[in-house]
Write a structure and sequence with these properties.
By secondary structure, the protein is an alpha/beta fold. Among the domains are: 4-130, Arc Repressor Mutant, subunit A, CATH 1.10.10.10; 172-243, Serine Threonine Protein Phosphatase 5, Tetratricopeptide repeat; 294-437, Rossmann fold, CATH 3.40.50.300; 443-530, no CATH class; 607-721, no CATH class; 852-963, Serine Threonine Protein Phosphatase 5, Tetratricopeptide repeat, CATH 1.25.40. 60% of the residues lie in helices and 6% in strands. The strands form four sheets. A five-stranded parallel beta sheet has the order 8-9-10-7-11, with helices on both faces. It has a three-stranded antiparallel beta sheet with strand order 1-2-3. Strand 12 and strand 13 (587-589) form a beta hairpin. Residues 1-96 form the OmpR/PhoB-type domain.
């Protein structure tokens, strides 16, 4: 293999020096490129088919792929010591030394620049970029592979160019940068990093007029193509060029890793082995968006295909959707979103659109501080994030059209795939969705599924028994899959022996929705159940009591009252029997039919006291873990009535620090919310309200306001059944009122908070009473702004001063600091700026003493506001900028507030260009968050544009006063 290399960065092939040895055809080069992109990893045949022919392959495609691989293997045979092409059941892989592949050598050189000095890093980058001999994948067959993979590779090249330009600017090689970047920026004026480097190089090279002309061209491109202004960094460089100031010296930032991580969601569940081809797959393939993004399947420009797979439970809708989605995923390079909407499942608690939107925003990923509190704002943000992207959205197990509509993006080039037992006629009528019924397997398909999962010789030896299995499963794919698993687990048994007892009649298990059933699933499930060990059978029955979509192994151990190791062993047994599924590491779920069967078994075989005890242990597990987690993330809040100790058999949740607690809450969130609902419905009222209280701070801090409101409504219903424990209802009302306040439901929030405060006062619970007063103060302050009511502002001061006195009497330092800042803020809003400084500087000192940087940030913001009111804008700017150091990326709603005030202070100080730039930054971030202050910011900017030398009007001034 001496002297031979593989090239992807330009003309694809096997090269020796400057002589290409092959492949000789474009199709062979495509196959070689696919294998070299991921050396050593298996590339499925279906992906090779798509790479060669796109979404409409010929019927002979798979055979043609095998032929191309055969010819490629012959080409590589002389180099067997360094390039081995192997075949597996899943596809093909090429084992090759990555140092011989130009793409992987390029990436290694870029990675190596992290540790070298600037001169060495520059040499490495020049060597890396020299490996590019033209556009990547330049002469492969068709356009699919360059269109899907090429842009990402080009981004890697441009990132390296940008890094090298940074180093050259730092070394004073300005003319080199101009020569290198001018054609690149002309081709892509929206790549701000390259534009910034070119603008800097022109300015430093004494070509100021060209720099200014470049910015004008770029600004027009941004306006024409995106409808926005260039970013803050370019604005600052432009201002420096306008003033003739030297731009800040270029530093050499840490280089990006290569390849840079692509922050796109890959949420598809694992594909199922041995899937049977179905006619519906061809119909789905026809819906794939055209490569130009203008619709699909003959639809008009701008149409986004929506397909609804409908059919009875267990017919294989989810399996079909996931299997096809895996095959089609390369057509959606911006990611694949998937969610189980729980429309039909173990409980009536279907996933709300709000829950689903939040999951999608987390996956995209959108920082939690960017997510608006209200549902409408979240939907708008979700659609804005997906606009212009090519994403596959799989909405599994939907109940009705209303559950689906908010989850539909407005993104031509994307595709939405919905599965549901219902027809979703409303979605078809109003949204133009295409309904695709999924039918039962034919006898031939049923036999094919069995043949894919069982030994063909075994089936051939017992054709009558196979016919009996096919007949009794009635073409239901779920039943067939379970039957195959049961039969495959006993390879030495005759098939006839395993089907003994098939004649049992079904009892109450509703296999299909709407009376469409023709399969005896209960009997089929009984085969697997009777084959379980006693421990696994008991565990399956107890899992039928859990009304959640999944569960962790420690919670399973607590439910069953067994050791974690034993729980893991039994879960493995259930997983292998296809009775539960490990959907993610340590998250076990089940199909709703299996849950219904397990639930029936538990009701029939487990005494009621044993069932109640199992659920009590499960709720104890969640409550003890949530209580410990709440102590770690909310350390300054002292719970005056801790929960009782868990019962024997409960596995403790081990959390070491705040990071552990946050990870645990994030992983268990849906299970915890479901546990509150089930505890309330089952009469476990103490568990319901205490668990809601324990997860309140997490939900609030994460911005999960709708979930917080729902959980505390449920908790309140439970607490009201505990008349001898008035604190229970008070805590539930506090959590509900806090959520309603954030949602803007002031009247409802006030009623709940005042009722809670009355109880806390009567019980002598000072910290809780002070917490209520603080929230009432926040509400009064927000009402003062919303309704222009000075009396409400006076009430805000009074509430916060009362809270401050209570916290001081209790020695509650964190509460004292928060209340000091709240009082100071409200007094500044009344024009009492000196008093504000006194209060907020004291608050800052306490927060600093306690090590609370976000508290420090809030106090610094209030101090800046006071100095701005005192007519000292330069000092205000100083404090706002210090506040932003902590708030950036942490609390983006508050970041917008501070940016708005900073922009106003800069205008007051005569720093007009900076003020405008800051306000435009606030506007961009505020629009993404649906922030209520954006209208006032627009008014300010409009006033500045219309009358550059005029004072701001009242509407513009309002943009400075938001908290």
């Amino acid at each position: 293999m001496n002297g031979v290399e593989f090239r992807l960065l330009g003309v694809v092939g096997v090269w020796q020096g400057e002589r290409r040895l092959g492949p000789s055809t474009a199709q062979q080069r495509t196959v070689l490129a696919m294998l070299l992109l991921e050396p050593g990893r298996v590339v499925p045949v279906d992906r090779l088919v798509t790479a060669l022919w796109g979404t409409e392959p010929p019927t002979t495609a798979r055979n043609a792929v095998h032929g191309q691989v055969y010819r490629l293997r012959r080409l590589l045979a002389p180099f067997a010591d360094g390039a081995v092409l192997t075949t597996s059941r899943q596809g093909y892989s090429l084992a090759v030394d990555e140092s011989r592949v130009d793409l992987h050598r390029f990436r290694a050189l870029v990675r190596a620049t992290r540790d070298g000095d600037p001169d060495e890093a520059g040499d490495l980058l020049r060597t890396a970029l020299g490996l590019w001999r033209g556009p990547a994948l330049a002469d492969v067959a068709g356009g699919w592979l360059p269109e899907v993979t090429g842009p990402g590779l080009e981004d890697e090249r441009l990132a390296a160019v940008e890094r090298l330009a940074t180093l050259d600017l730092a070394a004073g090689r300005h003319q080199d940068v101009v020569a290198e970047l001018t054609p690149l920026v002309a081709a892509d004026p929206l790549r701000e990093g390259l534009v910034g480097h070119l603008l800097t190089a022109l300015h430093r090279a004494g070509r100021r007029a060209e720099a200014l002309a470049l910015f004008r061209r770029v600004r027009r491109a941004f306006a024409d193509e995106l409808g926005i202004e260039p970013g803050d960094d370019l604005q600052r460089l432009h201002q420096a060029a306008l003033r003739g100031e030297e731009p800040a010296p270029a530093s050499a930032p840490a280089p990006p890793t290569a390849p840079p991580p692509a922050e796109v969601p890959r949420q598809l569940p694992r594909d199922t082995d041995g899937c049977v081809e179905r006619p519906e797959q061809a119909a789905l393939q026809a819906l794939l968006p055209a490569r130009d993004g203008e619709g699909a399947g003959g639809e008009g420009a701008g149409a986004m295909p929506i397909c609804v797979l409908t059919g009875p439970a267990g017919v294989g809708k989810t399996t079909l959707a996931v299997h096809w989605a895996h095959r089609a995923r390369d057509a959606f390079p911006d990611g694949q979103l998937h969610v189980d909407l729980r429309g039909f499942g173990p409980s009536d608690a279907a996933m709300t659109p709000a829950e689903a939107i939040r999951l999608f925003l987390e996956a995209l990923p959108v920082p939690r501080d960017r997510v608006p509190a209200g549902f409408d704002g979240q939907v708008a943000l979700y659609r804005s994030v997906l606009a212009g992207r090519r994403v596959l959205v799989v909405l599994d197990n939907a109940r009705d059209s209303d559950q689906v509509r908010p989850l539909l993006p407005n993104a031509p080039g994307s595709l939405v795939l919905v599965t549901s037992r219902n027809e979703l006629t409303g979605l078809v009528a109003s949204e133009g969705a295409r309904r695709l019924p999924v039918g039962l397997f034919s006898d031939a398909q049923a036999r094919e599924l069995l043949a894919r999962r069982l030994d063909p010789a075994r089936l051939a030896a017992a054709p009558d028994t196979v016919d009996d299995i096919v007949r009794r499963c009635g073409g239901l794919p779920l039943a067939l899959a379970i039957a195959a698993a049961r039969t495959g687990a006993r390879p030495g048994f005759p098939l006839a022996a395993l089907t003994t007892g098939l004649g049992g009649s079904p009892r109450d298990l509703d296999v299909f929705d709407g009376g469409e059933a023709n399969a005896d699933v209960r009997t089929v499930l009984s085969w697997s159940y009777r084959a379980l060990s006693p421990g696994a059978a008991r565990l399956l029955r107890l899992l039928g009591l859990v009304e959640a979509e999944d569960i962790g192994s420690d919670a399973v151990a607590s439910l069953a009252g067994i050791a974690p190791g034993e729980a893991g062993r039994l879960l493995t047994e259930l997983t292998r029997a296809h009775l539960v599924t490990e959907r993610a590491p340590d998250r076990y779920g089940w199909h709703d039919l299996l849950w219904a069967y397990a639930h029936e078994l538990s009701l029939a075989h487990d005494p009621e006291p044993e069932r109640a005890e199992a659920l009590h242990r499960l709720f104890d597990h969640y409550l003890s873990g949530a209580f410990r987690g709440d102590q770690l993330i909310n350390w300054h809040y002292r719970v005056e009535v801790p929960p009782p100790p868990p019962r024997p058999g409960v596995v403790p949740v081990r959390l070491g620090d705040r990071a552990d607690a946050l990870d645990w809450f994030r992983g268990q969130r849906r299970a915890l919310v479901a546990a509150v609902r089930q505890a309330e419905q089952g009469g476990h009222d103490t568990h319901a309200w205490q668990l809601a209280r324990a997860i309140r701070s997490f939900l609030f801090q994460q911005g999960l306001t709708l979930e917080q409101a729902e959980v505390h409504r449920v908790a309140l219903a439970a607490a009201l059944r505990l008349p001898h424990h008035p604190a229970a209802a008070a805590h539930a009302r506090f959590g509900l009122g806090q959520a309603q306040l954030r949602l803007g439901a002031f009247d409802e929030a006030r009623a709940e908070l005042e009722a809670a405060g009355d109880v806390f006062r009567a019980l002598g619970s000072g910290a809780d009473q002070a917490g209520v007063l603080s929230l009432l103060g926040v509400m009064a302050d927000e009402r003062a702004t919303a309704e222009d009511d000075p009396a409400a502002l006076d009430a805000a001061v009074a509430f916060n001063e009362e809270a401050l006195a209570l916290y001081r009497a209790l020695g509650h330092r964190a509460g004292e600091a928060r209340s000091l800042n709240n009082v100071g803020w409200c007094r500044a809003r009344r024009g009492e700026y000196r008093a504000t400084l006194e209060h907020c500087e004291a608050a800052y000192a306490i927060h600093r003493e306690l090590g609370d940087p976000l508290g420090e940030s809030a106090a610094l913001d209030s101090i800046g506001f006071a100095y701005q009111g005192l007519g000292e804008p330069e000092r205000a700017i100083e404090y706002y900028e210090r506040s932003l150091r902590w708030r950036r990326g942490q609390e983006q709603v508050y970041e917008v507030n501070t940016l708005i005030k900073l922009g106003g202070a800069q205008l007051d100080a005569g720093r007009r260009a900076e003020g405008e730039a800051t306000l435009r930054s606030a506007l961009r971030l505020g629009e993404a968050l649906a922030h209520p202050g954006v209208a006032a910011v627009r008014a300010t900017l409009a006033a500045l544009d219309a009358a550059p030398d005029a004072a701001l009007d009242d509407g513009a001034e309002e943009s400075r006063t938001g908290r």
